[in-house]
Amino acid sequence: LSFPDAVALATKDGLIIGQMEEIQKLHITKIPTKDTPRRIAYQEASRTFGLVTERVVSEPYTRSTTTGGFEILDDQSFNVLDRVYFQQFERPTAAISITFENDHNEYYVLATGKETDEYENNSIGRICIFQVTFERKLKLVHQFQTEGMVDSIRSFNGKLIASIHGMLHVFKWESTFGKNGLTSSCSKRLPSIAESISTYNELIIIGDLAYSVVVLSYDPKTDTLTEVAAHEKLKEVVAIEASDDNLYVAAEREGHLFVVERCQDESDEPVLETVSVWHLGDFVRRFRYGSLSMNHGDPDKNPEAPTLIFATANGSIGLIADLSAERFKLLDQMQYNMSRTIKSIGNLSHIDWRSVSIMNRKDDAVNFIDGDLIESFLDLTPQQMQNVVDGVGGGRKLDKSVEDICKVVEELMSLHP
């Protein structure tokens, strides 16, 4: 047998053959932009990044003031290939890359909106369809006027779904008089404004800014949307992603993360029950399936062992990983032992920090593991490690040795650089 790039160690108990693990680091490259970047999308066919930008000026806005733009960048050199600007108080709000059913071309979809009165009660918007040409320039192939600002858009089984001024629309890409264009196939009134949308199979999960989470089902045969479950809590949901048909991870404006599960109540009516809550302390802008390690996957497909990346308004990048019941039980007790054994700076309580406070009511974090706290185990002294394992200070003894716990922590750390 051959063991390339391996190290062989002969001991009194036998022969050990191992490999040195590659140290992974997250390399950060800063790309200067002319205006402030707000949204980003990637298009594989053209090998470009689509960037929504906003221009902030010190002078009062006029109808000729450039309020924002959309530009495409080469995915290797990050040079700007083309750019379009918006005026007349119109602002781009969202951008995605999409391939419609019955059309093999890949398009950038850009959503916009602007208020039409000084009290910001009325608005209009547009959905613009751009194609990257062979010369790598932006070509506007279609635009759809909307009666309201477009808050959010998402690709959905070859269709486009959009939240427009409190309404959810499903658009099809159809040919009319030999020219492709968007047609609204169905729509449904939402509780308020939806800034975040997720999909899973035929389900559409809405993150509402006033009424938490709403789950809709789309029937392609009848072109109808039906509400199948709702979370009867008042939460300002700013980001959401579906883990499977029944489990949804969400973030609310106050900096909390929570997970809801679709189940049946006593009258067999489908409802969404909260199963996990945790205080992050930051404003999550977006969830995205993917990995920060060297194993790259399709961000639009849910992997078998999913890891969910999130980005925050303050510039942080985090990772949520799914754990088995056995692993969670071990880490949950280890987390409690560490909070009892290791005192933080200023003697601040870890339990209080991660608890969820809403309207003067505080609830303890449930069914979440603090990865930062767990990984700090490797920074402890040997005696402190043993104290954590033994449950010194009011904890409970773990059924693992210090060496076993170190291996568990190292496995978790391999999920990210």
How would you describe this structure to a colleague?
The chain starts with 6 loop residues before the first strand and ends with a helix. Mean pLDDT is 87; it is low at 296-305. Helices cover 12% and strands 46% of the residues. It has three domains: 31-189, Methylamine Dehydrogenase, Chain H, CATH 2.130.10.10; 220-322, no CATH class; 325-414, DNA polymerase, domain 1 (Orthogonal Bundle). The protein is globular and about 80 Å long. The strands form eight sheets. A four-stranded antiparallel β-sheet has the order 3-4-5-6, with no helix packed on it. It has a four-stranded antiparallel β-sheet with strand order 7-8-9-10, with no helix packed on it. A hairpin with a 2-residue loop joins β12 (159-164) and β13. It is mainly β. It is built from five helices and 27 strands. α1 crosses α4.
Keywords, separated by commas or semicolons:
5 helices; about 10% helix; globular; mainly beta; four-stranded antiparallel sheet; about 425 residues
